[in-house]
Queue: 3 jobs
Job 1
Amino acid sequence: MSHEVLVIGSGPAGLSAAINARTRGRSVLVVSNPPEENPLWPAGRVDNYPGLPGVSGRELLTVMRRQAEEAGAEFFAGRALNALRISGTWYIGAGPRMLAAKAVVLAGGVVRGRKFPGEEEFLGRGVSYCATCDGMLYRGRPVAVLGYSDSARREADFLREIGCSVTYLHRPRTCVIQGRETVESVTCDGETIEVAGVFLLRPSMAPADLVPGLAVEDGYVTVDRRMATNLPGLFAAGDCTGGPLQVAKAVGEGLIAGQSAAAYVRQES
Ligand SMILES: Cc1cc2nc3c(=O)[nH]c(=O)nc-3n(C[C@H](O)[C@H](O)[C@H](O)COP(=O)(O)OP(=O)(O)OC[C@H]3O[C@@H](n4cnc5c(N)ncnc54)[C@H](O)[C@@H]3O)c2cc1C
């Protein structure tokens, strides 16, 4: 599946970027988790967004998404797991799918929570961020799913269906992943279970983990006034670029990133 602009995240920044890249006539694909998993969704009132005083987070996200769909943006439900640029094209892994685009807008919001001890050390050697990608490697073996989103339960069910013996842990607070060459056990909130694999299913990933070589400062993506990052064809907008962590700022940056991505595509074609 190939588009001119791919947007990661369907919060205010991503939807604004999508609308504005479409306004410039570019084909747009938005890759994102379900809207109910957006942090703004449960907010009862958003009072400081101009023009819509008292609107709920759910209403705001629903209207913005409808506007992006009506502008012609397409949507792909899933989590982006990695992004790499090869010969002028960006390739984005989303679950088992590989998506392609000329330009990418990162709009994944802020990442809440820290990595667990052992997570980085055993990544690819028992630790995985994607059940549908790596599940078959653990068929017939015990695995733990550490779920931090509603869709994580569905991924745990998928692992059961393909024959893994699954222990599902809902939002454990503290975990340590242990092993020698590969994962052998995980201890969460004081309880240790022996497992061959640990699936860490969070709604978002740190930008630098998603895109190797991306410049970040204090965990926030470094951008210039065009919302361009240090990598060609890669733009960022919203909470992921830093404070103030507010809707109006996210929407404004999304507009600039969407226009800049569209201009980049025009220059490159
Ligand atoms: C409870 C609450 C109340 C708030 N109230 C207000 C308020 O009143 N006024 C105000 O201005 N701001 C408020 N905010 C802040 C506001 O929600 C954020 O500033 C705004 O949503 C940022 O928009 P964004 O698009 O940058 O990121 P987000 O809205 O966080 O959207 C990012 C989206 O990308 C998805 N995503 C992340 N990584 C990936 C990936 N790898 N693959 C696929 N999808 C991914 C996330 O799941 C999320 O849905 C509130 C926040 C909270 C939590």
Job 2
Amino acid sequence: MIREKVATLIWYLERPPLYRELGRRITNFRVTTKRERERAAADKDAGRAWCEAHRAEHAELLEALGIDAPLQTLAEAHPDWWQQAHDAVNACPVKMGGPAATDLLYHLAKHLPAKAVIETGVANGWSSLAFLAAMADQGGGRLISIDMPYAKMKNEAYVGCAVPHHLRGASWSLRRLPDRDALPAAVAELGTLDLAHHDSDKSYDGRMFVYQQCWERLRSGGLMMSDDVEDNLAFRDFAGRVGRKPYVFYKKPGNYSGALIK
Ligand SMILES: C[S@@+](CC[C@H](N)C(=O)[O-])C[C@H]1O[C@@H](n2cnc3c(N)ncnc32)[C@H](O)[C@@H]1O
């Protein structure tokens, strides 16, 4: 346990851009009590139950956005890029976080259309591929992706590996920093956002931070998407705070993504 903590500390100390995150972790460090662990489990149960009760069909969101193109998957639209992505991910020696709702993100970004996009949480980069492919289809745009690799995972060289090289042009900027350090500057840089996607820090506070930062810069009619919204009740609470209808989509048993239209 102590050896693990020391190894994590060394990992951070070797990365000066992450010193602020290290400071936050040291300041907030405390041993979680049994009661807190039980509360987190109860929040997850409540989050799952809420998602199940609010499940919507993709068609409802598409209709609300005025998108009448039938849903086309990324594999159908760009079979070569899809195959390249799979080959790259299969060749990756490190197992990273699972994909977001890639096909839905691609379809929404393409038809919104989304020219200015922020995403938090990259890992293999399935969601990055979805946004960049949509931008290639609609003749350009800018994606800023934020990802702080997990400590000691040795995956830094592979973050975003699903994105084929020809899509890694001026449209894409990958910032290897925590949300809290990279997001305020990123949203300011893009000015007004068409779409924001959260798939990084899944804690209640981590979600609220990203949702709030992005919502303020989202244009009217823009879209905020979030993955794994069953983890806690942050997505429900944020939808209530901004007074918008939450759209919740089933991904697989016990796993949902969410959307809010500004
Ligand atoms: C579930 S994965 C993202 C999957 C990706 N959206 C996709 O579709 O392939 C989550 C990623 O968020 C990163 N992450 C976790 N906490 C973070 C934070 N506080 N700031 C930035 N990135 C974070 C992790 O290192 C990981 O790479």
Job 3
Amino acid sequence: MDDVGVDTTTTRSRDFWEGRYRAAAQDGTSLWGAGPNGWIAEQVGRLALDPGLALDLGAGEGRNTRWLAERGWRVIATDFAPAAVEGIRAATAGLAVDAVVADATAWTAPERADLAIVCYLQLPAESLAAAIARAAESLAPGGVLLGIWHDREDLARGLGGTMTPAIRTTQEETAAAAGAAGLVVELSDRRDRETPAGLACDCLIVARKP
Ligand SMILES: C[S@@+](CC[C@H](N)C(=O)[O-])C[C@H]1O[C@@H](n2cnc3c(N)ncnc32)[C@H](O)[C@@H]1O
């Protein structure tokens, strides 16, 4: 996923995202494409998780939500932009999806979940730690958090022009936040991803609630 937004703020506000989703809906375009994030799909397969309740936090247009729901998962998808949530509802009609307007730094699920996905939810460190802590609280024992973010390394590679350093993160920071939230980090890594501008870098975690 290439993030093409022009960002002049240190963080990305709800109004910023609401405007982007409203504009995309008017143009009939998609910001993130139809398929799931490749790494998320790969990890759900690798972990051979039995479909249960999944959370998709900062779900955007719901590409990961839809993919999971089509594979038998019940999904609660949240985003703080109401236009995103409207789009998720339209894109997942008929599937076992509950789409909710919620701030990932403050929301916990009404029932404990088997899987929580955090996919390119780029927040300043303190907010990101809060979102990971809320995700951890929402998991049942044995539940898994899958997180993927744009790594701060992109700034060094010259690919960081569209996002500010404050909302970039690293595998060390995300793993530390997951550990502080009481999760056991099973995988903490970085990996390259091809983009038209060159190789971008993502950081990733797989963490489990004991
Ligand atoms: C880069 S998009 C990724 C969307 C989706 N996860 C995907 O990968 O297709 C980031 C999303 O996070 C949402 N977001 C940002 N901050 C949030 C917050 N504090 N709580 C909930 N959603 C948030 C934005 O509205 C946006 O939809």
